[in-house]
Design brief:
Layout (H helix, E strand, L loop, with lengths): L3 E3 H11 L4 E4 L6 H8 L6 E4 L3 H15 L3 E5 L3 H4 L2 H9 L4 E7 L15 H5 L5 E5 L5 H13 L5 E7 H5 L1 E3 L19 H13 L10 H4 L3 H11 L2
Parallel strand pairs: 2-3, 2-4, 4-5, 5-7, 6-7
Antiparallel strand pairs: 1-8
Helix pairs in contact: 1-2, 1-7, 3-5
Length: 235
Amino acid sequence: MKDLISGAEALMRSLEYQGVETIFGYPGGSIMPVFDALYDHRDTLNHILVRHEQGAAHAAQGFARSSGEVGVCLVTSGPGATNTITGIADAMIDSTPIVVIAGQVGTAFLGTDAFQEVDLVGITQPITKWSYQIRRAEDVPWAVARAFYIAKSGRPGPVVLDFAKNAQVEKAGYVPTKLDYIRSYVPVPDTDPETVRIAAELINNAERPLVLVGQGVELGNAQQELRNFIEKAGI
């Protein structure tokens, strides 16, 4: 029989299982059970306290860009969560893999205008690769595994996990989980040969071709392919 642990503890173990060592965050009421669990993992999870939640999101971005790993930030609900919006949108535009974990009021209070309740999933859906609300402790390992897989696969980007307070304190069995496939998610779509043919024709017929190179070449490790293309096309 599996040992029963709190959702907050399951989050800590799931983050460790994903290889996380550094977290940027700022505590608050709706995420306090997670910070309590974090104290018991202080030897393996290094929490860097920021002075504002926006700073946590941007710090997670900088960490991701410099390390090549997924950046993680931990904030509370309401204004704590909404303060991360600029960083989340920036990560989406800049293809930076981060996972934002935000506290939320208990599921029994959702939709009641409870203290510091905001619809974080609704707010962040247009500016994330995936935004999900964890309502049950048993869903924590699955949600974290899915979040990290989506954040770092294909074109990298931000993922938001909205963590209801009741799910943080409820207890459930824990099973380490990793994902490398989601049926409805295609991180690298198939290339359309006809589209490539049309692009090649436009390039070959161009009188003064110009290559405008973006950071996607670096993120995709396609530097040599870019050099080969420029040399072959004589640009």
